[in-house]
Amino acid sequence: MEIRFDQKSKAMRVMLDGEIDHHCALDTRIEIDSQIKQLQPKRLILDYGEVTFMDSSGIGLIMGRHRLMQSLGGTIEVANVPDRLYKVIKLAGIEKLGKVSTAGNGGIK
Amino acid sequence: MKAINSMSMSFESRSVNEGFARVTVSSFAAQLDPTLEELSDVKTAVSEAVTNCIVHAYGNSSGKIYIYACIYDNGTIRIRIKDRGCGIEDVKRAMQPLYSSLGGERAGLGFAVMESFMDKVKVRSTVGKGTSVTLEKRISGKFENEN
Lengths: 109, 147
Fold this sequence. Notes:
The complex is a heterodimer of chains A (about 110) and B (about 150).
Chain A (H helix, E strand, L loop, with lengths): L1 E7 L2 E10 L1 H18 L3 E12 L1 H16 L3 E7 L1 H9 L7 E4 L7
Parallel strand pairs in A: 2-3, 3-4, 4-5
Antiparallel strand pairs in A: 1-2
Chain B lengths: L2 E10 L4 H13 L6 H22 L6 E9 L3 E8 L7 H4 L15 H8 L2 E7 L3 E9 L2 H6 L1
Antiparallel strand pairs in B: 1-2, 2-3, 3-5, 4-5
Helix pairs in contact in B: 1-2, 2-4
């Protein structure tokens, strides 16, 4: 799993690249959380555009970051979800936590 | 329903093997000529079951995980994932969506994902002895989807 960060004013985009499973979830979480705590964004955008596989660990990652952003008074969005991964996102009811966009509908700008 | 091919494997309950297990099972399933979506469903369900063995069954200890997979002449694949870990006291509760005995970063969706991505999920567990999860899915395949 490779992670890139892009912060513009108070919006932080986290671009995830690779597979998300339980094995890589811990390191991914630590890296994202340390950036959030350092840069204090108001809007966190998790970009799943380059994620090739994920199981429910990818959901745990969103739910955990949602809790963190809530405690900082911010919001979370999940962008560019590939069609194949959307099934898991939908099953978990992630849409109730924040805006979700799929790869097909243009994504969150 | 007649078995036409089978495979078995065992490996250590180390999280680095989660990827190895799901990729191996999905390449075995590939001979049914599944669509990308079907293959991804199988991969995801196997990943959940194997993660459960590592996180719950063996917890802070370690042990072996066994996988048996069988392909049947009607295009069904049956995958059994077995451990000799701590077992599940209340299988019904463990299978409830959003329930996790660990909480925190685990979404509690492992069984919910298995149930929605596979046709059948059967769980047998004995406390102190281990758990076996049987997943079954009929692969319609590219051929049937095109015709």
